[in-house]
Design goal:
single chain, tRNA pseudouridine(55) synthase activity, 3 domains, alpha+beta, 318 residues, Alpha-Beta Plaits, globular, EC 5.4.99.25, Pseudouridine synthase, Archaeosine Trna-guanine Transglycosylase, Chain: A, domain 4, 7-stranded mixed sheet
Length: 318
């Protein structure tokens, strides 16, 4: 989605402090980067994360958006400092391709009709084995479309809100048709703006590290490890240089510290606070909307939840 930005204060950034993300050294990239792993079927998300951690000799690693062992596809894994924000940075939609098997012969028109019926807001109770409380909750299915029919089996694509259970969606569609259904296979093809074309096989991660460590060749490692900013799926607020260190020290973001911001922010949104060099400073909760922030001369704009940038990167200005 293309999003416009709004300028609150015309500001320039001092080249003496911070740096553009693309100018980071390999050591800096590995200290705060994100690997988009192409998770295979079989191992758990935790196991894949542990393997990537060992392959890249990272001290810490953590994933965002858990995939069940039998589900493959896009699994973002944060390295070292990036683990601080992994649970907050991917709040957007997910896309999956899967196979649903109906337990009786179903006409194509009936399948297309039930897919349409389950597009929009759906109610779900998480499965018994889920890691969250089993309470009725609402989730949005943005699109649900058949790709290919093979008897009772249907290959489909679905785009949905984070936290939607596709296995339960398949079960509920079968119940609605009166014959039952179950999910046979599932692959996540997109998490936020991260698409499977950017995902790396585990062997590619291992090879990239070997090429850098043994041959001094950084090319593949820079392809495998993304800057944390490239993995963000959050609306953004850019800070004046003078406000960066205060936020790094845990202070709230006040209106005078805002240089520009994305349109469409509403109070309560999780947002990314960025430097004017497009470095992630922290992840925060917006206390006002974009339009309100543009009019504010004082007051709290956002409250930091997780600080990403190291203290001392920008000068102390208070």
């Amino acid at each position: 989605m293309i999003m416009g930005s709004m300028t609150k204060s015309e500001e320039e950034t001092d080249s003496k402090y911070g740096k553009l993300p693309e100018e980071r050294s390999i050591a800096e990239l590995m200290d705060s980067g994100v690997v988009i792993a192409n998770k295979p079927q079989g191992p758990s998300s935790h196991e894949v994360t542990s393997w990537v951690k060992k392959m890249l000799d990272a001290s810490r690693a953590g994933h965002a958006g858990t995939l069940d062992p039998n589900v493959s596809g896009v699994l973002p894994i944060g390295l070292n400092r990036a683990t601080r924000v992994m649970g907050l940075m991917l709040k957007g939609s997910k896309e999956y391709v899967g196979i649903v098997k109906f337990h009786c012969d179903v006409e194509k028109d009936a399948v297309e009709g039930i897919f349409q019926k389950f597009t929009g807001e759906v109610e779900q109770i998480p499965p018994v084995k889920s890691a969250v409380k089993r309470a009725l909750r609402k989730r949005k299915v943005y699109y649900l479309e058949p790709i290919e029919f093979n008897g009772r089996e249907v290959l489909f694509r679905v785009g949905c809100e984070a936290g939607t259970y596709i296995r339960k969606l398949c079960f509920d569609m079968g119940e609605e048709l009166g014959c039952g259904a179950n999910m046979l296979e599932l692959r996540r093809t997109k998490a936020g703006k991260l698409e499977e074309g950017r995902a790396s096989k585990l062997q590619d991660v291992k090879d990239a590290y070997w090429l850098w460590e043994q041959k001094g060749d950084e090319k593949e490692l820079r392809r495998v490890i993304l800057n944390v900013e490239d993995a963000l799926d959050l609306k953004r607020i850019w800070l004046r240089d003078s406000a960066v260190e205060a936020v790094c020290s845990g202070a709230v973001l006040a209106a005078p510290g805002v240089a520009r911001l994305d349109e469409g922010i509403i109070a309560g949104d999780t947002v990314a606070l960025m430097s004017l060099k497009d470095e992630l400073v922290s992840v925060a909760v917006a206390e006002a909307s974009s339009d309100e922030i543009m009019k504010m001369e004082r007051g709290v704009v956002a409250k930091t939840m997780r600080v990403m940038m190291k203290k001392g990167t920008y000068p102390k200005c208070w």
